[in-house]
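Quiz preparation item.
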């Protein structure tokens, strides 16, 4: 469990340091070009979820904060009850991103986003390191299970009760 905790803490640290840099050096809406017509650092205040979902609702940030707390607690639980190190570490990547954005919601009542990409005339929604962690962790878990299907049945979703195990073994 120590490696998973380290992964989570490193992601939170990188996420929060990058957001602090943006908060200290960019006004909201300020943007600089990194790669012409493709990649920009743009300070955006996101009071919703992905793609601004619920951002126009006053209660949206409260709901998203509650969901983040519940999801983070469940991810911690999954790390705790599972024996497969790779699975725990992949969950830890998602957990780091979830907590990174949760910290923002609790501190600022919004999430600090700043990575902006343009594809032709289309601007992809601005995101941050925590968002990258959540997406990469999710993709890696899917790939892991596609290549290790035998493990899927062994992943614990709830802690095994010793009494239940004794009854199963007697049958």
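Solution:
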């Amino acid at each position: 469990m120590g490696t998973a905790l380290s992964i989570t803490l490193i992601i939170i640290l990188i996420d929060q340091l990058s957001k602090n840099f943006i908060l200290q050096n960019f006004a909201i809406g300020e943007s600089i070009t990194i790669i012409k017509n493709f990649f920009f650092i743009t300070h955006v205040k996101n009071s919703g979820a992905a793609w601004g979902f619920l951002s126009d609702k006053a209660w949206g940030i409260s709901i998203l904060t509650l969901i983040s707390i519940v999801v983070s607690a469940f991810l911690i639980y999954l790390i705790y009850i599972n024996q497969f190190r790779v699975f725990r570490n992949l969950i830890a990547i998602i957990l780091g991103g979830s907590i990174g954005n949760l910290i923002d919601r609790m501190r600022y009542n919004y999430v600090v986003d700043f990575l902006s990409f343009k594809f032709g005339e289309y601007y992809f929604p601005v995101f941050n390191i925590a968002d990258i962690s959540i997406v990469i962790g999710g993709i890696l878990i899917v790939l892991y299970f596609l290549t290790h299907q035998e493990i899927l049945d062994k992943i614990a979703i709830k802690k095994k009760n010793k009494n239940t195990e004794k009854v199963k073994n007697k049958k």
